[in-house]
Amino acid sequence: MPEGHLIHRHAAGQHADLAGRTVLAAGPQGRFDARPWDGRVLTEVEAVGKHLLYHFADAPTVHVHLGMRGIFLRYDDPGTSPRPGTRLRLATGEVAYDLIAPSRCEALTRGQVAALRDSLGPDPLRADAVPEQAVARLTAFGGPVGAAVLDQKVWSGIGNAWRAELLFLVGLHPDARGVCAETAGRLWDTAVRYLALGRDAGQVVSDPDAPCERWVYRREHCRSCGAPVLTWQLASRTAYCCPMEQPERP
């Protein structure tokens, strides 16, 4: 599933191409009726955690969640025929975007958009995120920190790859509980910094000097010290941890 850095990257690119323009909207697959948005001005493409919101003038917001299989295809020639399975096409005279296999593509009222926002924790890539709120939500979580950072109600946009690498960067064991405010603040600041690098690069970047490398995620040995990486199931996902760099404390 695309994590928050890629969702924000999608939002930035599509906003630059589409926002402020009248768009042609279509649902080639037949599973989404795009007529309410066809010929309307798209005012903003916004990322909130792992969610995309398309705001239109005088029309409901379109909510997209890519899920595990969703992708976007971009065409410099808007006359290019959409591929089979295209749920939604948004096009101008210069560019077209096709959305394929999302888990969600739906219309939301203003109240439903507000409810979606309220259901999500602070997003490290949003300028309106409040660090104190992020710290409070993490320290109030009763379970392991590795479960907390995947819980979109605590922080939004973090997925399994970022969980592994961010916890490594601050030396936190995924099973650690009772994280103090200072440590939660360091973890949040690390997320803000590194997710921005990932958004700009289009990939998880946990080492600016070696942006294609990972410290522990999907590695057999820690890239820092060479210790065997430990793995186990935590919050329904595989946790990765270096026993030397991220010692488990009683």
How would you describe this structure to a colleague?
The chain is an alpha+beta fold and 250 residues long. It has two domains: 4-118, MutM-like, N-terminal (N-terminal domain of MutM-like DNA repair proteins); 131-241, Helicase, Ruva Protein, domain 3, CATH 1.10.8.50. The chain contains six helices and ten strands, in the order αββββββββαααααββ. The protein has helices spanning 4-18, 110-118, 131-140, 145-148, 160-169, 181-201, and strands at residues 21-26, 40-48, 51-56, 61-65, 71-75, 86-91, 96-100, 104-108, 230-234, 237-241. The strands form two sheets. Strands 5-7-6-1-2-3-4-8 form an eight-stranded antiparallel sheet. Strand 6 (86-91) and strand 7 form a beta hairpin. Helix 3 (131-140) packs across helix 6 (181-201) and helix 5 packs across helix 6 (181-201). The longest helix is centred in the last third of the chain and has 21 residues, at 181-201. It is elongated, with a radius of gyration of 20 Å.
Features of this protein?
elongated; 250 residues; 28% helix; Helicase, Ruva Protein, domain 3; alpha+beta; 2 domains
| Tally of contiguous helical segments | 6
Give Rg in angstroms: 20 Å
CATH class of the largest domain: Alpha Beta
Oligomer: single chain
Extract low-pLDDT stretches: none
Q: What count of domains describes the coordinates?
A: 2
Output mean pLDDT.
97
The SS-based structural class is: alpha+beta
